[in-house]
Structure formats: C-alpha cells, structure tokens
Amino acid sequence: MKKILLIISVTILLILSCTNDGSPETNDQSVVLTIEHVTITNANIGDTITINGENFNPQTTYSIAFNGVSGLVVENNLSYLKVLIPENATSGNITITYDGTTKTIGEIEINVDPISKLYVHKKEGFHSIVELDFNDGSEVSTIATSLPENYSNPVFNEITNEIIGSYSTGGHVDPISNEMIPLEAFLHKINLETGTVTEIEIESAYYKDLVISENGKLYAYKKADTQSIVEINSSNGNEISTIATGLPDYYSNISFNEVTKEIIGNYSNGGVIDPINFGTPSLQIFHYRISITNGELTESDVAPLGCFQDFIVPKNGDLYAFRIYLNYAKLVKLDNDGNEISTVATFPDVQFNFIPYNTTNEFIGIRYHSPSSSRISKVNIMTGEVIELEVPAHDYGDLIISYN
C-alpha cells in the first residue's frame, strides 16, 4: 500500500513540475479595440475629427475612410484618433481598417465646399488677372486685362463673387503744363461670373492694404496724417467707420482672422543708421492685433530674428508667417502674440507671396526663380510637405483664391 501511495505522489509531482516550469502564465484574451463615438457627424473638407475609444495601439496603422475615401490620421493615441477629412470625401459611412479587418464606426455628412479657383495679378504689358491651374500652375484663361499700372491689394469678396483691388492716379506735377495733377483713388472690381469691371472713386488715396471678411466687409489700412483702420463700403467707396486709430507708421502685412475677428499686422523700428548720431539702434518688431468688434488694440514685442513678409491665417484661425532671414526664408507657425512656435518649411529664396488654400490645408506661394521660369510652391501645413511647380517666367504679383 505504501508503494502505491509513493507512486501516486511521485506521479502528481511529475505532473505539477511539467505544468509549472517557472514560465509566466499566458493570457489568451486579446485586447479588444472599442470605438465609443465620433466627435462630429457634420463637417467640412479639411476639418479634423476625433474618434474616441479604448485600446488604440500607437504602433498599429489605422486607415479611416469617409465613404470609401481615405483620410489622414494626424494623431494616434491610446484613447483616440484624430483624422483629417480629405479633399474628395463625400457623405456616408466612416470605416476603420486595421490588421486586415474593416468595420463601420459611424456616419458623417460632409458639406461640399464651393469650387475653388486660383488667380494671379500678372504685371506684364497690359496688367491683367489670369486664372491658373491648381495642379500644374499653367495659365487657364485671362479674366480681365488693361488693369491700371499701380493696381494692388486684390482680395476676393465671396458675397459678390468679385475680385476687389485699388489704384490711384495723379498726385504729381504734369511735366508739360507744370501744374499739379489732383490725386485720385479708386476701387477696381472684377465680377468673376460676367467679367464686368467696375471702378468706384474712393474718399482717400492713402489706403495701403485691403482685407475682407467672409461676410464681405472690406477694411483698409489708411496711411494719412493719423494712421487708422477703416471699414469701406465696397459698393460706393465711402468710409463706413473708423475701427482703430493712432497706429504706428509703416504698419504692414495685414491679414484678417475670421475666428478672432481681428486684423493682424506688424511694424518695426530701429535697425538703420541714425543720420544724426550715426549709431544703429537695435531692430524692434511689434505684433499688432486689432479687434474689429470693439477696436481694442493688442501690441506685443517680437524677437527680431527675421523680417515678416506675410501673415497667413487659414480658416481655423491659426497664425502663420513667411519670415525672411539673410539668405533664406521660413514658413513658421506663430502664437497669438507673434512668437514662433514651429517651422513648417524652409526655402532658399526670399521672394514669396503665400495665401491659404483652405480646401486642402495648403499654403500656395509664387516666386520668380530664373530668367526662364517661375515656381509655384504648395506647402501642406499639417505635414510640411512642399510640392513645387515650375512654370514659364512671368512677372506675377498677388495670388487670389475664389470660393464660389
């Protein structure tokens, strides 16, 4: 009997030793991805949506599609994904694909953006406005010609479907009669549907920059005895109101922020030789934000690392600038006070004119490259990718994008 008990005990020990070899216990229950909800069900092309859930794996590649069109995953977190809605997306199901599996996780209604077109002020011979192809930069058609030689500051009015610019005449002595020619200024409006050109005399010839809001309100920097920001009636050229006054001289690079309802610009002083003391005061750059709601002015001192050439404000209200250095330039993201947050892209050339293309989250700029070619640069502000299109050399000025 003792031998039988001994054999049984040894057998049990052998079994236990075989099943418990010191290795860690395994759990065959796999981690399950759970989708909780999508933050919005109605959005625009270029918007970013958040997909909330549990157990996302930052090391896993997730593909999110909007009615079959893949979006760009811009952030992968344990508890959410952030996805950019692509240009060709349409309303329908949202699906997620990972590890060879595709699941429907919701529905979305995507608002169809207006058709966008790209135009440029061509400053050759008889000045003109021409349409450019977004894809290759080639000239599509001439919209208007025989523009005044000092035509400038074109903006697009979404309400009237017009490109509005300004120009002035006179203000100098006639070399033949030796008499002063009166200074006159005009708004120059081009209807993009009919091609009709309308010119309206305006009260002042001292408007240096024009900006416009989405609802068609036109503002200008008025450089006169007292510098100010004024609202102009685009129908008759009359000043409607003064938004802010007492601005510094050489206030420049103004842009309109649709989100904050502010006009943004900058000015600088110093950095040049004093003709009396022959010293060179330190360069100072100041960032200005002017509320069109109450005229409140906010000024901040900016590190003078490079001169600003353009402020660019996309639809989401973020602030960017094209900043020029000694032998290169950068497209940078700024905070509300004009300080650099990050560099989006760097360029070897300093002659650019950037505008936001809200449909694709790109900035589009144009520059003279060589005697035989110009270059159009498209910068994706999410990824920093730069696409350059080489086109025949032309004296191109301001770019304009229409949404209609």
- Overall body shape: elongated
Average pLDDT for all residues: 82
Spatial order of strands in the largest sheet: 2-9-8-4-5
Q: First CA to last CA: what distance?
A: 99 Å
* Largest sheet, strands/sense/barrel: 5 strands, mixed
User: How many extended strands?
Assistant: 33
CATH class descriptor of the domain at 34-111: Mainly Beta
Protein structure class: mainly beta
The percentage helix is: under 10%
Radius of gyration: 30 Å
Can you count the helices? Answer: 1
Instruction: Quickly give the CATH architecture of the domain at 34-111.
Output: Sandwich
Would you tell me which CATH topology of the domain at 34-111 applies? Immunoglobulin-like
The CATH H-level superfamily of the domain at 34-111 is Immunoglobulins
List unreliable stretches of 5+ residues.
1-29, 271-281
Which band does the percent of strand residues land in? over 45%
